[in-house]
Each structure stands twice: as structure tokens, then as C-alpha cells.
Amino acid sequence: MKLYAYCLTEGLDTLDHAPTGISDAKVSLFKHEELGVLVSNSEIDVVRVTRDNALAHAAVVRSVLDRTTPLPFRFGTVVDEQQLKSYLTARKSALQTQLEHVRGCVEMNVKIIQQVQNDEPPLPEHGLAPEGPGTAFLAEKRREIIGEERKTEHGAELSTLVREALEGLIKDEQVTLRPAERLVFAAAHLVERSSVQTFREKMSEAVKRRPELHFLVSGPWPPYSFANIELEFLTQFGVT
Amino acid sequence: MADFDQILVGEEWEGSELSLLETLDHVLNRGLVIAGEITISVANIDLIFIGLNVMVSSVETAQEVLRKRELQ
Known about the structure:
The complex is a heterodimer. By secondary structure, chain A is α+β, with helices and mostly antiparallel strands. Helices cover 35% and strands 28% of the residues of chain A. Chain A has helices spanning 51-62, 81-90, 92-102, 133-165, 196-209, 233-237, and strands at 2-10, 27-32, 35-42, 47-48, 71-72, 78-79, 105-113, 170-177, 183-192, 214-221, 230-231. In chain A, the strands form 2 sheets. In chain A, strands 1, 2, 3, 5 and 6 form a 5-stranded antiparallel beta sheet that branches. Chain A is elongated and about 75 Å long. Chain B has a domain at 32-72. Chain B has helices at residues 15-29, 53-71; strands at residues 7-8, 33-34, 40-41. Chains A and B meet through strand 4, helix 1, strand 5, strand 6 and strand 7 of A and strand 1, helix 1, strand 2, strand 3 and helix 2 of B. Strand 10 (214-221) of chain A pairs antiparallel with strand 1 of chain B.
């Protein structure tokens, strides 16, 4: 029998009212020394990405968020008991360090979606005589480069906007800038639980200041974005 | 649906879809990984919504996982 792993926890000895997991399986607490893992029995190795499965995974992880700050496993983590024990033993120190890092915190996300711009200032004319295809090509490249620079500057400006709005509230962050895409800015912020309301208020103020932008602020989440310890048994330990 | 606040300007994004996309973005793209132990199926996926980059990103991640497994 395999185990589907939802999240790593510390300080939990029992589960209170855990929701059912993937495929309506009962969720239990797998204890190994000081660490615990929320698991359910799994008869399958391949987990389908479906609405129900994704929401079940998220609900189980969220179910302990009021009592502790878990480190979520990525969707689809199916292991046998021995593999899980080996994993916890081999990476115990790194896992405890990461649990300590997120302790007392939650993840808040900010995304900025830019609307299609029809009112951008025109790019400068190249000033060259339209002589041949070479000139036209170079002029087009120049416009392209200037356009990219503008997008990059815009992305940096958005990053500054959010950072200044949340100054002093963020313990850690992961920021992704995609200047050329509609989802131009995506950030995950690790925030003390006591600061969540202030976080919301600060972001509400930022939203009001920039009505031309589409903001999506979500949270509190379990710290999915801060559980990125890669456990490469094969490469690090030679164990498959 | 996920229990979180949304501050959203504009009408084009419907709330429940965003909640689901945000949840997918978290559970599929992030979290602890035990190498080689994740196998997910995106065939017959019952979520068809390619309106926001998070979903595209999630599907790409899923496909990458599958490709890696095929190579092993």
C-alpha cells in the first residue's frame, strides 16, 4: 500500500476533523520522530489532475493551518512507507530549518495582470531614410528593443510599488516578473500571521492608487512557495 | 472553494474560477518534492481553462514532470 503525502508538520500529535483526502480516503498523521506527515492510503501511483483532487489536496493542507504552519508537498506525491521514512531521516535537518523559517507565518500572494495597452506612447521614429530592407530591418529591431526596455522598466516599477506598499511586513518573498506577458508580476510573500490584516490594508491602498492595474491578492495560504526543498535522492545520495 | 480574500479590479475574471486557478497554481507548481515520486495525469483533465498564465504554467509543470518520468 502506498501513501499519498499532503504536508509536513511539526508539533501535531493528533488530527482534529481532517477532511477526506484524494479519492475520499481517510487522512491520518504519519509520525516519524519529531516530524509528522499528513497522509492517506493510495491504491494508485498516478494521480489525475482534476478539480476534485486538487481541491482535496488543498483542503487537507489547509485543515491544519489554524494549529501549525505546514510545509505542503507538491500535488501527486505518492510514496511507500519506507521511502517516506528515508526521506524524513535524510532531510531532517533541512526540513526542520525550513519549518522554523515558516513557523508562525502564512503565505500571501500578489499578482498584477496588465490590460491590453492601446494608449501606450508611440515608440520613437528611427529618423533614417526608408531606403532598403536592411534599414527597415534595423529600424524594426530598434523599435523592438525599445519596446522591451519599456516593458522591463514597467515590471520593475510594479515590483517597487508592491515592495514599498508592504515594507516591513515581509519575512521572505519570491517574485516573478514577466514583463512581456499579461501576468506581469507574481509574488509570494511570507508574512507573520499577526500581519495579515495589515498586509490586506496596505494592498488595498495600493490597489486604489493604481486603478488602471488588475490586482489579485490572495491569502492566507499555507507556505507552498516556501517549501521548495528539492529532495534529489538520486543525485545527492545515490538512493532511488 | 479556497478560503481567501480577493482584491480584484475589473469584471472579466469570475471569482470562483480565480479561486480554483489560484489553488491549482499552488498545489501543482509548488511544494516539497521527493524526486521521482510524483506522477500526475493531465490526460482527460477535467479542468479546461487556459485564460490565465497560472493555469498554463501549471499544465506546463505537469507535462514537464511527465516528460522527466518518461526519460527515467
